[in-house]
Amino acid sequence: MRLTATGTFLLGSGSVIYEIGRTGEIVWQQTVKGANHIYKAVRLPNGNTMLASGYGAFIVEIAPDGEWVRTLGRAPGQKVKSPKFFADFQILANGNVVIANWMGHKREDSRKGQQIVEYTPEGQIAWTWHNPDLAGCIHGLLLLDGLDVRALHHECAGLLAPVAQPVPLPSVPAAQ
Fold first, then answer.
1. What is the chain's alpha carbon radius of gyration, rounded to the nearest angstrom?
2. Count of the separate structural domains present in the chain
3. Residue 27: CA count within 13 A, CB half-sphere
């Protein structure tokens, strides 16, 4: 579940994405064809919603009327080795989208294909990461991407952004 800039919440269930008000009312909903266990969704500044389709193994940006604006991971040339379950994702400041490709419950499942993939806004693969000896199956990620680590951040408008002024870091005495 993710908070939007207007104070509502986005929540996926199966192939349906819901926007829920603070008192529990459904404000908006869309069925996303091909999605299965929608994992995460964020509302973008343009009013569209970007979501991870779970077992559909793609990311889709949809307009408020449900029209698909773009997809990542679905078209030829966009598919990673062994796409299984597109889980968490993060939109970077340059517009690229980094996605966790979860591949199963067992540690050996992580050997099947790329664990993390980065797409350009146009849908081209910019980078992948696969190291099953270092990490098992990945379903969550957080890239600092030049963020000020002294501030708390949120994704209410799609990109990670500070929620408060940076907090002062304690001074560290110089090494003697």
1. 17
2. 1
3. 14
The phi and psi torsions of 111 (rounded to 5 degrees) equal: -80, -10
Is 114 a member of any domain? Answer: yes
Look up the domain containing 121 and give its range. Answer: 2-162
Q: What is the pLDDT along the chain (176 residues), one digit of tens a residue?
A: 999 999 999 999 999 999 999 999 999 999 999 999 999 999 999 999 999 999 999 999 999 999 999 999 988 888 888 889 999 999 999 999 999 999 999 888 989 989 999 999 999 999 999 999 988 889 999 888 788 888 888 888 888 888 865 556 556 566 66
Extended beta strands in the chain, E state: 2-3, 9-13, 16-20, 26-31, 40-43, 49-52, 59-62, 68-72, 85-91, 97-102, 116-119, 125-129, 153-157, 159-162
- Biggest CA pair distance of the chain: 63
CATH number for the domain harbouring residue 77:
2.120.10.30
